[in-house]
Amino acid sequence: MPAKALTIAPGRLIKTIHETAQFGAKFAWGSASTETGVCRLALSDEDKKVKDWFYEETKKLGCEIKIDEVGNMFAIYPGKNTGPPTCMGSHLDTQPTGGRYDGILGVLSGLEVLRTFKDNGFTPNYPVGVINWMNEEGARFPQSLMASSVWAGLQTKEEIYKMESVTDSKPVTVKHELERIGYLGDIPANYEANPIAAHFELHIEQGPILEEQKKEIGIVVGVQAYVWYNVIVKGKAQHTGTTPLNSRADALLTASQMVVKANEIAHKNSGLCSVGILNLEPAVANVIPNKVSFTLDARHETDQGLATIINELKEEFELIAEKGNGSKTSKPLKVEFEHIYTSPAVHFNEKCIQCVEESSNALFGEENCIKMISGAGHDSCSTSARVPTGFIFIPSKDGVSHNPEEYSTPEQCENGFKTLLNAVIKYDEL
Amino acid sequence: MPAKALTIAPGRLIKTIHETAQFGAKFAWGSASTETGVCRLALSDEDKKVKDWFYEETKKLGCEIKIDEVGNMFAIYPGKNTGPPTCMGSHLDTQPTGGRYDGILGVLSGLEVLRTFKDNGFTPNYPVGVINWMNEEGARFPQSLMASSVWAGLQTKEEIYKMESVTDSKPVTVKHELERIGYLGDIPANYEANPIAAHFELHIEQGPILEEQKKEIGIVVGVQAYVWYNVIVKGKAQHTGTTPLNSRADALLTASQMVVKANEIAHKNSGLCSVGILNLEPAVANVIPNKVSFTLDARHETDQGLATIINELKEEFELIAEKGNGSKTSKPLKVEFEHIYTSPAVHFNEKCIQCVEESSNALFGEENCIKMISGAGHDSCSTSARVPTGFIFIPSKDGVSHNPEEYSTPEQCENGFKTLLNAVIKYDEL
Ligand SMILES: NC(=O)NCCC(=O)O
Ligand SMILES: NC(=O)NCCC(=O)O
């Protein structure tokens, strides 16, 4: 049966998106019930609820559901032949200030593909699966693409098990939370022991390019490189009222100079540098901070460009720390870098790109689709290290994401779903 | 009996200082048991313990002890005549990273004065008291001189009752904690209903001047003006990986520029500006912060100088916010100022200054004493608004304070105590 012959259920995808937003709906920004964001941190109670829901829905479709040792969920729809499934994957966890689409669109469109198969009595040549990857966001446990990177063998499960949450007042580990919500599965978290044939991901762009260029679909050919560091600045706790400016070692003043400098370095190298978390000690109004730690998220289209940025950051931060608080008599401070994670630049698989391109061009015309790279990391970066991977973007209103007001129209969501459906069928036919 | 005739107990004061450090000893910086700081936040369990201890010790000396509605403790030693007591006051609460001397020296030297009276069978003309003022530090509840300012009528008790702690993971109010530890007394917190005749305070300098100038005693003639603000910067939460630098409204980048600018303004005006607390939202590595709030502590020797600094800060911060993240296309941010507390410049009472000066010059020679002003606020700033007030400094090693390594030698502490003893007797004789 050719792909175009499948009948789709218009509006069902967007209905499912808004239905599942009940698991963590937060931060109303409009008057309609659908006008809120979603806060569904990885392995939280809300995340458990959506995982349970996903389990039930895919079960109804006749899927086999595998839960691996790091909480990834694989729902496999049977094909005519057995073999590794062609998968569609993304994530159902969100940022604390998350929207309704980031990650969610990808998983629920995958589900919608399976529902469409079922409605049409369509059986693919090989199994087709939907994956809900655990902790893509790196918000509660501060490392993005966490569980997909374990599956891809880029990290061990032991490394992530011990990571602690940063959004709970009493930090808890990944292992603890996997056990607590009942998602520490027994399937090996490994691309060899639990293989897939290919990975397709549909995602909102989270940036302004498609909207600005009035395109419907982004045929994503790669992802920029990025790295996360924890930077620690050490000065001296002293009294704000009695310590002359020239004899201070003010860790916050120094850290502030670094935040400003990082932005300059990003501009200069056509990359991005951002500080999202900053903590200080002792955090008292009349005590000069003796310690500041902050995260540094640096990105560039190329691995080489990112390396240049990192070298400059390290050099300049050392200089700022050594100089102290800016006068001859001020004391030098110390700066340390703790590496958290590097996601190298990714180039997606040519065959998968072709499936996406043929699918989108046929649906919306070549003039409405563009090839582009992604600014954000995605679980597809992990899978791309091991299996053919393809990626699809739809526009994000005003390029806003990681914000409750994140928005794509129902039509844009459906466009993305159709592109995904046809791309997967094309790949299955290869 | 003339003052000089009183026999003192050498070493007892410093022994008492180290004994009471058991209530909150923390952060060892050397190998001796006395080489730690003290963490005794206002109205904490440790603060209750030291208050109970102070109650018992002054009771033993025959004092009447009054506890007022905001937790201030007045221990009154009887004189030959009745009437308002000449008081020696300071505070037993500390910073989270506090030392063994800040405030503590003043209260325990007051106690040592009373013990000396008792040992010598000395009865002053009028009652002499020791006051332990509640929450001088403004660390746990972020307003310094909290309860002395209520006593002085500079603030109402209702205003401080509702203030919330910033060092507890679940904030609690002042009222709640006063009740919890049993120090919500029934004596009116008011200089008219519970009057004192005069206030003398001995304190460590917490700055480098006495040490640098090789002086034993600072005859403090006044205190610089200071103000605390809470500054709130509002930007927009967006994805760090997909949002071009030019379309950001990064509240932390803007706040960092403000921290740097505040330091410049302080330099330019020969004042001080410091940021001790900074919080941001949503505090996720890959989300641009949409909100940053920070405390701003600004100081100057004169009220006029402080006003100039504040005007410049407000003007420059508005400009920084309006300009946005530095490029033509970036969005403006918002900045708001919440005033917390102003402590105007203080000039102590001439008679009290004279008592201190005569006392210190007689003990150590004029060449070893200097007149100076204090960089830090003290409870004496509050009392000075209502009654004759005098103030004494001893040197602080390296000018370090609000730090566990805060240190003054046993001899320096005893010098301060002797100066206080004789100054109070002189005032009592007037
Ligand atoms: N898409 C997305 O938000 N991924 C999280 C990893 C990143 O920060 O790029
Ligand atoms: N002495 C002292 O630390 N006082 C607290 C008030 C201030 O910050 O000046």
TrEMBL record, chains A, B:
Any Pfam family matching the protein: Peptidase_M20
SUPFAM superfamilies in alphabetical order: Bacterial exopeptidase dimerisation domain (SSF55031), Zn-dependent exopeptidases (SSF53187)
Family label: Belongs to the peptidase M20A family.
GO molecular function: hydrolase activity, acting on carbon-nitrogen (but not peptide) bonds, in linear amidines
CDD domains according to UniProt: M20_bAS
Keyword list, A-Z: Hydrolase
Name the record gives this protein: Peptidase M20 dimerisation domain-containing protein
